[in-house]
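**Entry details**
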Amino acid sequence: MDIKKPYLLFLGDAHDQLAAKVAIGIKQWHPEYCVGQYRMADCHADCGLPDLDIPAERAAGAQTLVIGVANRGGIISQQWIAILREALESGMDLAAGLHNKLADVPELRELAAKLGRSLFDVRHPTETYPVANGRKRSGKRLLPVGTDCSCGKMYTALAIEKEILASGVKATFRATGQTGILISGAGVSIDAVVSDFIAGAVEVLAPANDADHWDVIEGQGSLFHPSFAGVTTGIIHGAQPDALVLCHEPTRKTMRGVDYPIPDLAACMALNLSMARLTNPDARFVGISVNTSALDEDAALSLLATIEAEFGLPAVDPVRHGVGRIVEALASL
C-alpha cells in the first residue's frame, strides 16, 4: 500500500486516550507524518497536535485522513460519515485499520471512485497465507506477550527494535496490527486472518533470516483474555520466538472490556512459555516491560525492583527508563 503522507489523524469520538492508540502511536513514532488532528465534540482523547477542520488540514498539506480510533468491534460509526465525505471532497484519501472496511460503505466507495480518491483498509490482508509448518528457521525472533490486551506490546517491540539497531545489530519490527502497519509501512493485521492460517501468516511475516538478525514481532492480546486468546496462541506458534518479553499494566484489576481478573505474572509467564516451546523448545523470557504511567516515580521504581527480584529478569518501563537492559540480555542468545 502506498498511503500518501502527511496524515490528518482522525480521533472522532474516542471515549478515552487508549481508544485513540492508533493515532497516538503514529504521532509518537513518526510525528513527521502528521499535520494535525480532527476531534469531534465528544472526543476524550488528544494526540497533542493542532485541532483543525478539514479545510485547514487540507491547506496544511494533509494527503490522507487516517482513522486513528481503535473502538470496540472496529466499526465505522455513522456519525463519522459526513466528516469522511468532506475529507474525500477536499482531496484527501482515507485510511483505516478497523474491522469494518471503508470500501464496504457504499457512499464512501462511490464518492471515492467518482473523485479518484483511494480507500486503504490496512486491517484486511490482500494475500493468501499457508498453514503453518512449525519447521525451525534461521534468524532470531523476539515476541512481547501480555497479561492483557492494550498493555504495551507494540510500544515495547518498537522500542526494542530501535535499541537493537542503535547497538549496531540487525533488526526488523514486524507489525501484526493496524497501528504497527501504519507506523512501519508493512505487516499483516493478524486478527483479520482466518484462524487456521494465523501461525502461517506469522511464519511468512518473519521468515528465515540471517543468523544474527532479530525479527521483533508485535504481540497481540493475551492468552488469558477470553476474547483474544486464540489470536495470541497463533502468533506465539508462528513466531517461534527465541526471546519473550512479558508486558504488564499493574494498576488494572480486570482485563480491558471484560470482567476477568488480570492474571498472576508467574502464571502468565508459565503458560506463554509452555505455548512458545511447542515450536521452539529453547524459548525463554528475557525481560518484563511494565507500563507504570499511572504510578509516581518512587512507586514505579519500587514495583520494578520487586518484580525484578522475584523473577531475576530486567524489569523496566520502556517509556521512563528505556529497554536497554532487556536488549543487553539478548546478547547471550
About this structure: The chain has two domains: 7-121, 140-332. The first helix runs from residue 21 to 29. The chain is about 30% helix and 15% strand. The CA atoms of residues 306 and 315 lie 9 Å apart.
